[in-house]
């Protein structure tokens, strides 16, 4: 355990993390964080039913490179054998303050629990702490989805539950933005997705297939840009970063859900919170789940590309009217080279997407009826365009399956322009 001296009221803090290979540097970085934890705990201790015995933190593995450090934070008090649970996020002071302000909007709309923050400008470090008040046995949706011991249906229930909190807060007092301006933070990432796609176009003749696919995606993108030139987005409160790691649920009851990490909360298009989760399911979690499924040693882990193409086409064909799971399975089993573990993974993903899209339909039908009577875009087109733009922005992420993303962008782009 690590305990920082300086006050008789400091708490014992157990940090299950190494901040630096060099012991001296590790101790320095540890001391900074333990100091902030102690400040937070001293602020909160009046609400505890006993004396704090110790505090334990262990890391939450994150995707991307945001520069933040995220930990589960458990506070144990005397004579109680279960902890008070939080999520703690360390980042620089400005980012801590900005996210704290964004979280206030989410809290006001009741999509966020209590959020506290403590900062120290002398070391340019802050801690933002999210109270997991509704869930004592919390687990990330990503971990839940990838654990084959939990059912497909429960994965769908968790998504249905969380989306009851989303897309419910239009704000007429915030000025509308152009569609592309609203999605700018997703498109203009450090990974430079547009330049990345364009770099694939200039290929040797031997790799013309890659060049043709990239050129088609760039063509879809430019057509969408032109189509949306005069299209305004009516602002709704959105989480903005609703992927599988930012959704927490109860192990015992997956209908109990809670969101974390509100750094991207803003007013914008309500489809974003559906599109990012859908992209996470299709381009990240599906392949990860294949690796968790039992299969013979000589069995091919990898799903044929034509199977993913068939999967994406099926989703674009039916959009909000997805057929029953047995119809989907029968459709996918007709694909050459598809194996049982591929069907198992596709089934789980499809059940989750059914729940997601049922919720998206309700929100986007209402959005179009109440706030978009002039653009000529249906709720289906709003959803597909959002999926395209969000997926386009993720295309440079190392966590996604790159070929699946390129195929998905082409199929979604075609579907947008054919409707």
UniProtKB/TrEMBL annotation:
InterPro entries: EcKL (IPR004119), Kinase-like_dom_sf (IPR011009). It comes from the Bacteria. Keywords: Kinase, Transferase. The keyword Transferase applies. One of its GO terms (molecular function) is kinase activity. This is Ecdysteroid kinase. It comes from Candidatus Kentrum sp. SD.
